[in-house]
Amino acid sequence: MSIEESSSSSHQLGKCQSAYALQMPINSKVEARFGKQSYRGVLKWRGRLHDFGNHDMAGVELDQDVDFSIDEGANSGLFESKPKRGVLVRFTSDFVISLEPPVHTGVFCSPYVGPLVWRGKETPLLEGQYKGIQGNQNSCYLDAVLFSMFCFENSFDYLFQRKYDDHATDLIKTKLADIVYTLRRDKLVPADKTMDLRKLLEAKTGEQGLTTSEKDPEELLQLLFEKVFKVDPLLKLGPKEGVFTFQLILDQSSTLDKNIPTLQDILEMYCFHEKIHFEQEPNVLIVTLPRFGSGHKVFQDKVIPNLELDITNLVLTSAKDCDTCTQQYAVRQCDNCYSVTGRGRPTFHCERCWQHTHGPSTKRRDHVSTALKIPEFPVNPEDADIDVLDRATLQLFAVICIKTSHYITFVRTSKSADAQWVFFDSMSDRIGGDIDGSNIPAVRVIEELKHLNDVDSVRRMAFDKKLSEDFNRLLSDVYICMYRNLRLDSY
Fold first, then answer.
1. Which residues 6+ apart lie within 8 Å of 412 measured at CB?
2. DSSP annotation string for 389-433
């Protein structure tokens, strides 16, 4: 980050701290934090002091005596308090939390989450041990999700720009924004910050075990989007139907290519088999692969997550090209051809090719067609030659994997075609014992993932057993794939 960027970031963060302070009136009941200890008290003063770097400060009269009060010294007369109970603390959401409902002052400031982590072609900014988010007490489900969503990606930053009515949600937003800001600025988030978020989530939703137990990333995503932030579904499947994560439900008897299937294969097979269509192109698509229980996958071998996912044939409003001539727009879909062609999906036909392949004198004359919903064209679509079909594609930016109840993630570092990928594990190692020790998070670059672009090459490497341990882990343990729409960039 340049000096100018750093100055701008500090200025914006300072403004948000001021807004946070203004939302809390004098005599509000608060909780003040000093290290790992929290104390309850009453807000008696707020302002800025030269001795504290002109940061927003809070003067709090605690409910109990402490040995670090300001009874003596230069700041002893700032506000009235009982002996041994007056303290000064930084006025941010890290150190001062209101215990009362919020007061609407007309001041609204979105938490500043900072610029994305950027990787140049030289020295990596985010690599090695003690990088990323530190795991603690089965937090890997949360760590992998947050790293995937926010470290190199801003599609979800809109969550911080929204205004929420209830105090609990606003606290969660502020704490989550602090985690994201710390990750992007310092490249390391201590475990106590994510634990604070887990406590707030548990209190808000009533979901037990968020602070101690193993949880599923899909459940966390559902909880965040639907129960906490209450945003619109990420994927619309109909005028009044939508989902936040798109779960592929297939059994082991599903017919797929004997080679390693791609996510494209599985997605199209499931959608066409279940007659599911996307109402419109999504900004973000989160796909979960089928599993039985916490550790049993339907596809026991491997799945290749496509770097580019083509959803043209799944979106109702997308024009589709004719499978037969590939020169004209399709106006008919044939579900019966699914078993005839072996394509793994129905076939699409222009009117001319439909008559040629499904006419009265053909073997497929009994097949039933479905009229396609297509956009308006300046000419009759039957007569419109396709120059370049504007296909609806999504770019893969994260793959969350599971093995023996432990979640890790592979994340794309930018939107460029040649972007590098990194591997993140919030519990890659441990220092100390089970009781007094701590986990060591780590990030490392995975060069081999550029081969994901060439599916045939990946299959050959897998057949010849030439995959690296990390690459093999991605293909074998893939669980959640996150895609973004570069054409409809949402932020």
1. 152, 395, 396, 397, 398, 419, 420, 421
2. ----EEEEEEEEEEETTEEEEEEE--SSTT--EEEEEEEEEEES-
- Residue 322 to residue 329: CA distance in whole angstroms: 6
CA pair distance 271, 248, nearest whole angstrom: 8
Are the beta carbons of 215 and 142 closer than 8 angstroms? yes
Determine how β-strand 284-288 pairs with β-strand 246-247. parallel
Helix axis angle, 140-150 to 167-186, nearest 10°: 70
What is the percent of the chain where pLDDT is above 90? 34
- Cβ 194 vs Cβ 139: under 8 Å: yes
Which pair of tokens denotes residue 326?
């590939």
Q: Are strands 188-189 and 132-133 parallel, antiparallel or unpaired?
A: parallel
> 3-state DSSP: the chain helix, strand, coil percent, rounded to 5?
30, 25, 45
Q: Which two tokens stand for residue 76?
A: 């002893």
Provide the mean pLDDT of the chain.
80
pLDDT of residue 191: 92
Q: What is the pLDDT of residues 56-71, one digit of tens each?
A: 788 999 999 998 888 8
Neighbours of 413 (CB within 10 A): 21
Query: Dihedral through CA 371, CA 376, CA 378, CA 382, nearest 10?
Result: -10
User: Minimal CA–CA distance to 382: which of 356, 360, 353, 357?
Assistant: 353
- The DSSP code for 435 is T
455: left (phi over 0), alpha (psi -120 to 50) or beta: alpha
CA–CA gap between residue 380 and residue 385 (Å, rounded)? 10
* Nearest partner of 228 among 166, 148, 139, judged by Cα: 166
Check if the beta carbon of residue 300 is closer than 8 Å to that of residue 294: no
How many degrees, rounded to 5, is the angle at CA 424 between CA 418 and CA 426? 165
CA 50 to chain centre: 40
Specify the pTM: 0.72
Rounded Cα distance between 22 and 82, Å, is: 25
Count of CB atoms situated within 10 Å of the CB of 38: 11
- What's the length of the chain? 491
- Candidates 390, 383, 406, 386; CA nearest to 477 is 406
Integer Rg of the chain from CA:
27
> What's the whole-number mean pLDDT along residues 396-406?
92
- Is residue 217 within 8 Å of 398, Cβ to Cβ? no
Please state whether beta strands 406-412 and 86-90 pair in parallel, antiparallel, or not at all (unpaired).
unpaired
User: Which residue has tokens 């150190």?
Assistant: 95
User: CA–CA separation, 363 vs 83, rounded Å?
Assistant: 96
Which candidate, 199, 205, 151, 173, places its Cα nearest to that of 426? 151
Say how many Å lie between the first and final Cα of the chain, rounded: 21
> Residue 376: pLDDT band by 50, 70, 90 thresholds?
low
